[in-house]
Every structure is written in C-alpha cells, then in structure tokens.
Amino acid sequence: MKKPSGKMIAVIVLVVVAAAAIASVFVYRNGKLNLLNRPEYKRLASGIEQAAADGSFTSQQSLQDFLTAWARGNDLEYTVDDYGNIIFTKQAADRKKKVSPTVICVNCNFETADSDACALASAAMIAKTDIESGRRTVIFFSNEKDMGEGYKNISSSYFTDNTKVIYVDSGNASYLSTHSYAQETSYIDVPVSREDASCDTAVKISITGLDSGFVSSGIDNRPDVIGELGYILNMLKTKSVTSQLSDFSVGGNGNMYPVSMHATILINSYSLSSFTSYLDKQIKEWNNMYGDKYSALSFTYEIIEDEEDIPDRAYSDDTFDKLANLLYTVKSGTYQFASGDSIPDGYEEGDNYGLNCMVNLTAGGKVIRLRLLSRACDNEYLNRIVIDSSAAAELCDCTFSEGDIENAFDGESEALAETIIKTYKKVKDIGGDSLRISSSGDSYFTPCSYLSQINENMKIIHIRENNENGAVLTNTLLCYIQTKGNFLSL
Q1: Per the confidence metrics, is the pTM higher than 0.85?
Q2: Which of 216, 239, 382, 400 is positioned for an S-S bond with 393, CB 3.0–4.6 A?
C-alpha cells in the first residue's frame, strides 16, 4: 500500500484540527455556557439578601454559620482557620496537575452581606460546581469592620508561584481592575484637661440609627457624626456662647463609617433658646438630607435643668477650643486633581484622587484621639492627604502620628484580565461592551494590595460584579478555570 505523502499528511492534520475546532465550539456552546446552575445561584444570593433583611446576621459568626451550613448541606469540604476565613480547596484533576492554580477571594462582612450577596453567592457556587481543573481554592476572608483580619493572616500556602488570584466583590457597575487605592490610618491626639462645671443647664445630644458601610468615594453624601459634633462646638465658639463640653462618645466601627454620636453640652439658661433653635435647624436639615436613606435615623436632644442631674465636670476651655479647631480643620471627604497636578494615566483634572475619613473619636486618659482613614490612587497622593492631616494637627497644637500603611496595588496583570474578558464575550455571546478593564482602576482599597505582597510570582485581578450580570460573570470564571490547560482553550 502506498504511503501518504507529506502534503497529504499535512492536509489530514489540518482537517483533524478543523474538526477539533468545530467540535470544541459545539461543546463550548452546548456545555460551557451552562457550567453554572443559575437557579441555585439566584436562590443563594436571594437567601443571603433575605437573611440580611430579616436581621439574621447579627455578628460575623452568624454569617459564617450561614455559609458553612450551606456548604454542609451540599456535602462540600471546607476549613475555617483561626482568623475566621472559610476555605474551600479542590485538588487538581490528574491531567491538570501542572495547570496554574486559581484562587477566588471574596470579603465576608456581616454588616454588608446584603450588598455583597451576589459576590458571596458567586464564590460559593465556584466552590461547589464540579468541573475538571487545576487546583482551585475559594476563600471567604473574614473582614469584620473592614479591618482585614482575615486576609492579613491568611496562610501563604494557598498562594504559590504562578497562581491566578481573582478577588470578587459587588457594586453598581461591573468591570475588571488591576489597580486599587493605597491606604493609611493615622491619629491626632488632643491634650486633655478637665475643670469644674460652671453652667446651670445641660443639653444631651444624640444621633443614632445609622448603618455603617465601607469608606468609599461616596463619602461626600454620607452623614458625618464626628463632623456634626465639630459644627456644634464651632457654632458655640464663634458665637461666643458660654458653654462647656462635659462628655461625648462616637460609635466607631473599625475602618467603616461611624454610626452614632452622643454629647453633653453645658450651657447657661439664658442662651438655651438660641442653642436649641440651632439644633432644631440642624435636625431638620439632617432629616431632609438623610431621612429617606436611613429610616431609623434619630437626631434628638434633651434639656437637663435639674441641678442634681447636671454634670459637675467638663473639659477645660483650652481642650474645648483645640477640639473645635481640629474638627473644623480636618474634614471627611474626597480630594480632586487640580490644574498643575502630575495626573496619573486614566485620570483627568477634577477626578477624585483620594479621600479622608474621620472614623472615630475617643476620650481616654490624657488625650482625645481622632482616628483617620486615608485612601488615594497611589502612595504619592496618599502622602498629600496625610501631610494635610499632620499640618492640621500642628496648627491646632495637637500631636499627629501615623499608623498602618498599605501600598497601592498595581498588579500589571492585563493579560489575565484580557483572557477573562475574552471568556466573558464568548459566554455572553455579545461584543462584551458591558465588561471592561477600568483604565484608572478602583477608586477604593481592596485586599489585592495585601495579597500582592504574599508572593510576587502571581497574577492578581479584581472583578466587580453587579446584580445584573453576577451570574454571567460567575459562569465566566468557571469557564476560565475549566478551560485552562485544555487543547484549543480560551
């Protein structure tokens, strides 16, 4: 029998490759589009939202119990480490032991479970779905109060060389990012002295009923309880009203927005009417601005005229003035690029480059301590914000100190992001216009910054989902994980 010629062999190979490609597309269209059990994904996301709405999540443990009960109900193996991280690991299939591992990460915070529901459900379904892949790890970072205890203490054993790390969260718009903000905490200490009370009336002021939340670029539209205390003190100071601050407390919540404020102002009875008129205007303004968004908001005051109930001690005039000046000078809000700035790629004049948030105000011992959380697009602009706070401290004769610093994340993982987008386009079967790589990155801090320091030989991206395309993006990630290492893979 005559042996086939070289040309004939080449033709046969091309035919085989073409047939494989056609088969691959057929299998892709009829199988890979449906890796995700969408009804189950939607039930889980809705279940998390409903549990949050019912008030079932009262602690970090309660959310952890919800997720682990779901895992046990689906016969999934998991571990919970000493820091509350829930970890699902599936070892590589035999033929994919050399395929790069994938780690899917998501934040787990009981206070924000409602808004995080689609991301939590995505991570859970990626952990559950039975696909042939390289090593696959899904980690629910315990992130109570946005303090990062979970991701700061995660074992480095999950993040080996060549691992592809995908951090997933939820928001209004969906996009991919390879850059997120730098972050720093800092402190300003006001020296404290106390003196006898000298006024005949007290007014107890309370602001309660606010939900906390992650500090973000929406800070300018957020109720600021510490700033409100500053407004009150400065009004009394500028109007030369004889008054004293007896005590105060702020409901701080870690690296999240504070939720309450209580203060007792001592004042003489002849100034009481003008002071309560001012408070009435402030209360009306708060209710008009925030009442629709925060249904439980309560801004009230109580007049104490009984001599026996009036506090007999208060902060000195010097402490009062320094605290009032400090809260007038330091502001919670965003910073924008101005003309003449060295503006990074992806930004333009007028865009936000960072933010500063007064997250807590505490009294103890010889100082009143203002705790600040600052975030910016890079370390240079972060330093600008921190320098402003330091200058404010010096101007008010207070002491400034720096705390923890997390550098900006710049993953340089565009190739990974492009691969995810190509996968998304095929899963979505459209041009993919609704998913993009953010040119300027995230306008907030993500755990990617910390994870990038664990192992420099990894690729890391961040995906933000929303309710409209959470299922499609979850399916996209499953397709990406499964096709790695396949012949004619995506």
Answers
A1: yes
A2: 400
